[in-house]
Design brief:
Structural class: alpha/beta
Number of domains: 1
CATH topology: Rossmann fold
CATH class: Alpha Beta
Order of helices and strands: HEEEHHHEHEHEEHEHEHEHHE
Low-confidence stretches: 1-5
Largest sheet: 7 strands, mixed
Length: 282
């Protein structure tokens, strides 16, 4: 499998790829057909994400997880991110049927879905994440593991979401194909992922944006190739216009450089660092 990941594009199946150097000196490859960029997975994904929910290991955001979890549990309110709002605004009626979030984390997005009438289901590769989700949403239905091990029957969900997940998985085509199988006909598959066409992602300063955390680096062209290969019909692709939080700069620096950020994002059409995609099973 490793040689295939290094040589063959899993979005369009082309074998025409070239070596490129990623940030921090990581080696990658770029498909000459659909522009997908990828790197070898250096560590076990489950190991990485269990560590994020462990205060005694690398766990670089453990306390943030706990703080957000406790606040949501006491108020039952959630602040949604812009790419999650994009999903909500484009699903009509919103809050009808069964929704599955893959990579559900501590249950933040699913809390918003439950508050709007969805029957909620979640899956995460980290058992610790699922424990927090169950604590927040005891009426939810949760499973631990990758989507390939999901135990729900085929055609179970009106909607499946996976925000900031696709860049981490071992095989994006297998992932998307499994999600398609779990959808009802005309069901919606929605996801977000970093936008490789944006300068802020290609030069991102945080190491957890690079291998072994992020393995796949998508742009609009490679997303179309992947979903087309999987047989999903694209409804909408949205890029944020210019980067803000994606820069990881202090707020005062973002304000100072706002004209430059807008120029690169809007005038030069490099976007803001995220792509949101809505697709349909037909």
């Amino acid at each position: 499998m490793e040689s295939e990941v290094q040589q063959k594009c899993l979005a369009c199946e082309s074998t025409n790829s070239i070596p490129i150097e990623l940030n921090f000196g990581y080696e990658g490859r770029k498909c000459q057909n659909c522009d997908l960029v990828w790197a070898a997975n250096a560590l076990n994904t489950k190991q990485l994400y269990d560590s994020a929910y462990d205060k005694n290991s690398e766990g670089f955001i453990w306390q943030d997880f706990l703080n957000v979890h406790d606040r949501m549990k006491s108020t039952q309110q959630v602040l949604l991110r812009w790419y999650e709002k994009c999903f909500i605004k484009n699903i009509k009626p919103f809050g009808s049927g069964n929704i599955l979030e893959i990579g559900c984390g501590i249950g933040r997005f699913l809390l918003g879905c439950r508050n709007n009438g969805w029957q909620i289901h979640g899956m995460d590769i980290s058992s610790k994440a699922v424990e927090l989700s169950k604590n927040l949403l005891p009426d939810g239905d949760f499973q631990v593991g990758p989507i390939e091990q999901a135990k729900w029957p085929e055609e179970s969900f009106e909607a499946i979401t996976c925000f900031e997940v696709l860049e981490h998985v071992s095989d994006p085509f297998v992932f998307v194909s499994k999600a398609k199988g779990l959808l009802l006909n005309n069901g919606i598959f929605a996801f977000s992922t970093p936008d490789w066409d944006s300068w802020v992602i290609r030069r991102h300063p945080r190491k957890n944006y690079w291998p072994p955390y992020h393995i796949w680096f998508f742009c609009e062209k490679s997303i179309k190739a992947l979903l087309g290969r999987a047989g999903l019909k694209i409804i909408k692709i949205k890029r944020n216009k210019f980067p803000w939080s994606e820069t990881c700069w202090p707020r005062w620096l973002r304000v100072l450089f706002l004209p430059w950020l807008v120029y690169n994002g809007v005038i030069l059409r490099q976007g803001g660092g995220r792509i949101v995609v809505l697709a349909k099973k037909v």
